[in-house]
């Protein structure tokens, strides 16, 4: 089973690309989706204990939490010590299930794949990218996003050019979903072919 790591900086079109892959029948595990589930479940109480006032009606208020940890390296480190192991456990269960089902290709959608030292956990890496002006426009259009918050998030992420240089595949999402879908289908066909040749 080939594990394709999908990553890219904020606003580069990672979620849209993951959805395209799912439409092509590839199982996808999204770290972001796992965090959403955990914030509404197992991690709500520990996060409230660590950062009082960040949980509303049993669910982590992401805006309140972001305001507490962004720009505070120690707070971010403490949060990651809670979140990362829980996400990794969900990911491991996903991979085990896919192997048992005989899948030949799966995607791990990991926003900070390079930054968190996870590049060695996948077989190939796909980076989604777009020009900086397009990225900025997309991100600042999000509800609750400010230029300051965007800059704080960017400061924690590896520069896009470096991600592209380290990737096996790159998709430029600024050309629109149809073009991105075509690029993705070519990549998936290539990987599925590799998987079949490895198993024979």
Short key terms for the protein model shown above:
globular, Rossmann fold, single chain, five-stranded parallel sheet, 2 domains, alpha/beta, 200 residues
Give a concise summary.
With 200 residues, the protein is α/β, with parallel strands linked by helices.
Question: Any overview of this molecule?
Answer:
- Its main location: cytoplasm.
- It catalyses: 3'-dephospho-CoA + ATP = ADP + CoA + H(+).
- Catalyzes the phosphorylation of the 3'-hydroxyl group of dephosphocoenzyme A to form coenzyme A.
- With 200 residues, the protein is α/β, with parallel strands linked by helices.
- The chain has two domains: 1-27 and 103-195, Rossmann fold; 32-102, 3-Layer(aba) Sandwich (Rossmann fold).
- Helices cover 55% and strands 14% of the residues.
- The protein has nine helices and seven strands, in the order βαβααββααββαααβα.
- The strands form two sheets. A five-stranded parallel sheet has the order 2-5-1-6-7, with helices on both faces.
- α2 packs across α5 (73-100).
- It is globular and about 50 Å long.
Average pLDDT, rounded to a whole number, is 93
Query: Sheet bearing the most strands, described?
Result: 5 strands, parallel
Output the strand order for the largest sheet.
2-5-1-6-7
Percent of residues in β-strands = 5-15%
CA-atom Rg in angstroms? 17 Å
The total number of structural domains is 2
C-alpha termini separation: 13 Å
CATH architectural designation of the largest domain: 3-Layer(aba) Sandwich
GO molecular function: ATP binding; dephospho-CoA kinase activity
Protein name: Dephospho-CoA kinase
Function: Catalyzes the phosphorylation of the 3'-hydroxyl group of dephosphocoenzyme A to form coenzyme A.
Catalytic activity: 3'-dephospho-CoA + ATP = ADP + CoA + H(+)
């Amino acid at each position: 089973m080939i594990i394709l790591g999908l990553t890219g900086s904020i606003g580069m079109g990672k979620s849209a690309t993951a959805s395209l892959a799912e439409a092509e029948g590839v199982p996808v595990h999204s770290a972001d989706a796992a965090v959403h589930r955990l914030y509404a479940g197992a991690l709500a109480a520990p996060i409230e204990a660590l950062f009082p006032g960040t949980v509303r009606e049993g669910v982590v208020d992401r805006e309140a939490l972001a305001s507490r940890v962004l720009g505070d390296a120690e707070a971010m480190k403490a949060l990651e010590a809670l979140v990362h192991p829980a996400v990794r456990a969900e990911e491991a269960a996903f991979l085990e299930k896919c192997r048992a089902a005989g899948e030949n290709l799966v995607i791990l959608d990991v926003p900070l794949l390079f930054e968190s030292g996870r590049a060695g956990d996948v077989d190939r890496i796909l980076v989604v990218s777009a020009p900086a002006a397009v990225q900025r426009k997309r991100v600042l259009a999000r509800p609750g996003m400010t230029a300051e918050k965007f800059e704080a998030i960017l400061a924690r992420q590896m520069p896009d050019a470096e991600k592209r240089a380290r990737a096996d595949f790159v998709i430029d999402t600024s050309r629109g979903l149809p073009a991105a879908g075509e690029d993705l289908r070519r990549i998936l066909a290539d990987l599925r072919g590799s998987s079949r040749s490895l198993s024979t």
